[in-house]
Design a protein that fits this description.
Blueprint (H helix, E strand, L loop, with lengths): L2 E6 L4 E8 L3 H13 L6 E9 L5 H18 L5 E4 L3 H14 L6 E4 L2 H10 L3
Parallel strand pairs: 2-3, 3-4, 4-5
Antiparallel strand pairs: 1-2
Helix pairs in contact: 1-2, 2-3
Length: 125
């Protein structure tokens, strides 16, 4: 499975780890699952270091549009900490964060799980 997903309702935290190739459809399905499980406002720690896919500009745009539609229905998404080690991927997730500003999305790009946990803790989740 390319996305290992764990939802901790008590801690109001999602942890997702990409492993191997992950498609846009799988990413959107993970976001939809967050909504379906009542975890839209939870903090999300998304560890991309084991993933092999670098999303295209179209992938990033479609993901931001999808998050924007869900934000309109469900209110602001919880903060998203993205753990990245691949420089090409870092460019795309930085762009995702910039575009996410248009949907009131809080995104932090991190280099370690510890840094991501700390940022999410500071965000109150």
């Amino acid at each position: 499975m390319p996305l290992n997903y764990n939802c901790d309702h008590a801690a109001r935290r999602l942890t997702v780890v990409s492993v191997g190739a992950v498609s846009r459809e799988e990413t959107l399905a993970m976001i939809d699952r967050q909504v379906a499980e009542g975890a839209w406002s939870f903090g999300l720690l998304y560890d991309l270091r084991q993933g092999t896919t670098v999303p295209t500009a179209e992938d990033v745009q479609q993901t931001v549009l999808h998050v924007g539609r869900l934000t309109t229905k469900h209110g602001p998404r919880g903060p998203v900490a993205l753990v990245v080690s691949n420089p090409q991927l870092q460019v795309m997730v930085n762009w995702y964060g910039s575009l996410g500003d248009l949907t009131a999305l809080k995104v932090q790009v991190c280099t370690s799980v510890e840094e991501a946990d700390h940022w999410l803790d500071c965000e109150g989740v």
